[in-house]
Design brief:
Radius of gyration: 19 Å
Helix content: 25-40%
Strand order of the largest sheet: 9-10-11-8-7-6-5-4-3-12-13-14
Number of strands: 14
Distance between the termini: 30 Å
Largest sheet: 12 strands, mixed
CATH superfamily: Aldolase class I
Shape: globular
Number of domains: 1
CATH class: Alpha Beta
Strand content: 15-25%
CATH topology: TIM Barrel
């Protein structure tokens, strides 16, 4: 088996270089979305298993030294980590300073948007699948839509722009209202991104035959809006294919992870809340950084583990192939 080259970048065998790090700061969440976890929740990580703030910052600094240019904080729900604002400030103080983004469900962001922006957070993506109160409560098993709306407004007022909304369209649940959600976002100046439902649920109940794919999303949006694709050259390594809405300047994006995977341009890597580095959302393996770090590993030792894991990254995620196996860890434990 070939070994990773010694270089100050996160290179894989297919020529891709990882510059975007997704950091899960907790596996806990205050919603129970049906496509993510069961109503009773999941067994959360015990505190000793979690990276401490100092450990997390040390690892992020190593990733930055290896060429990471953007750090996205995820969960679970990242706002549940009490030290989040301090973590953002410490990441912003790294040299070179990475761009800092966060994916959140928005609950509690009305109180934290200002402090997070002041600490160095650059922008947010807020998960919101429907703006119908009944649909929201049924889908998330929580009556918290007003809290999410307040979080969105606070993010905009704090300058965390563009404020992006992430939505998953699901058959028989909210597929009929995708155009309503786009209209709602356009009215408020939010940028909407639809994401195809992926096999990352804790229940392992994902079924490709019931998934709402990108073509169907476009068809439903086109019933109310004129949707015009932007040139492919403008996409780069971004996961979303973007479309002008009614001629622009507003856009809507579709992340077709399943039906039109963008693995060939992927520049992402992931660090879990318990200190595992994963080179792909759908990887069947991960490399432990927490134990070596706690056993006295040097920064060079940890960098070698990281570059080795990235070098093994597969050419694609393999969804739809005969030998595809869903990861044991659900999305809430991996980090989005």
């Amino acid at each position: 088996m070939s070994t990773a080259p010694i270089a100050a970048q996160l290179l894989d065998q297919h020529g891709r270089v990882a510059r975007d790090l997704r950091v899960s700061v907790t596996d806990r969440c205050n919603l129970r979305c049906r496509y993510c976890m069961p109503a009773e929740g999941l067994p959360w990580l015990a505190k000793p298993e979690m990276l401490t703030d100092d450990e997390l910052i040390r690892l992020v600094s190593i990733f930055v030294a290896l060429g990471v240019e953007q750090v996205r904080l995820t969960g679970g729900e990242p706002l549940l980590r009490r030290s989040l604002t301090d973590l953002v400030g410490r990441i912003a103080a790294l040299t070179p300073r990475p761009r800092i983004a966060m994916t959140t469900n928005g609950i509690g962001l009305d109180r934290l948007a200002g402090p997070l922006a002041a600490a160095g957070l650059d922008r947010v993506n807020i998960s919101l699948d429907t703006v119908d109160p009944k649909e929201f409560a049924d889908l998330t098993r929580r009556d918290r839509l007003k809290d999410v709306e307040a979080g969105l407004e606070a993010a905009r007022e704090a300058g965390l722009v563009p404020v992006k909304v992430n939505a998953v369209a699901m058959r028989g649940i909210n597929d009929h209202s995708v155009a309503d959600l786009l209209a709602w976002c356009l009215e408020r100046g939010y940028e909407l991104r639809f994401i195809e439902q992926m096999p990352l649920d804790a229940q392992h109940g994902w079924d490709a035959s019931t998934m709402i794919g990108s073509d169907e999303i476009r068809t439903r949006l086109s019933e109310r809006f004129t949707i015009t694709p932007l040139p492919v050259s403008e996409r780069g390594s971004a996961p979303a294919e973007r479309f002008l809405v009614d001629g622009g300047p507003a856009t809507v994006g579709i992340i077709a992870s399943v039906t039109a995977p963008f693995c060939g341009a992927c520049d992402r890597t992931r660090l879990t809340a318990d200190g595992q580095v994963r080179n792909c959302l759908f990887s069947q393996r991960e490399t432990d950084l927490r134990a070596p770090m706690r056993d006295g590993a040097s920064d060079d030792d940890l960098a070698a583990l990281i570059t080795g894991e990235m070098w093994r990254k597969a050419k694609g995620h393999g969804i739809g192939t005969a030998d595809f196996v869903q990861p044991i860890r659900p999305m809430s434990a991996i980090g989005g």
